[in-house]
Amino acid sequence: MKKEARFRHLEDPAFKIHHTRRTFGQKAADKVTEITGSWGFILFLFILLLSWVFMNAYVLIRYSQHPFDPYPFVFLNLILGCLAVIQAPIILMSQNREAQKDRIKNEYDYQINKKAEEEIKEIKEMLRKKLK
């Protein structure tokens, strides 16, 4: 009975990590990363870009002669640049949190594997003694 108590597993930190309170900034970074990393967002952005170019290169020139962003679409480039500048650090923050979770889980896996190896050695030794 005493020996069996020694073979208990370590507590899984993944449960604690998953249920820890996140700050508003962490929640926002995760949500922005989730939204902007989806195919829906890519499709939306693609349609928006095509619409912008079509409106300024064809419709507004043909009907009003005053496109709000004529070719080479400097304002569109400004908007896309600002989007990239804002989006990049937010994605990095979310990736850093995920990397931290992964490090903790990897350390837990290492401890479990190490403990399992020690237990297997003990079991082998016990079997060796019984078979003699």
Explain what you see:
With 132 residues, the chain is mainly α. The protein has one domain. It has five helices and no strands. The chain has helices spanning 2-5, 13-19, 24-36, 39-63, 74-131. Helix 3 crosses helix 5 (74-131).
Strand content: under 5%
Please, what is the average pLDDT? 87
**Radius of gyration over all CA atoms, rounded:** 28 Å
Q: What is the number of E strands?
A: 0
Order of helices and strands: HHHHH
Total helical segments: 5
Could you give a short account of the major beta sheet?
none
Roughly how many Å apart are the termini?
23 Å
Estimated structural class: mainly alpha
Query: Low-confidence parts, pLDDT < 50 over ≥5 residues?
Result: none
Helicity range of the residues? over 70%
Instruction: Give the overall form.
Output: rod-shaped
Number of domains: 1
Q: How are the SSEs placed, and which strands pair?
A:
Blueprint lengths: L1 H4 L7 H7 L4 H13 L2 H25 L10 H58 L1
Give the tags.
mainly alpha; 132 residues; 5 helices
Q: Summary?
A:
The chain has 132 residues and is mainly α. The protein has helices at 2-5, 13-19, 24-36, 39-63, 74-131. α3 (24-36) packs across α5.
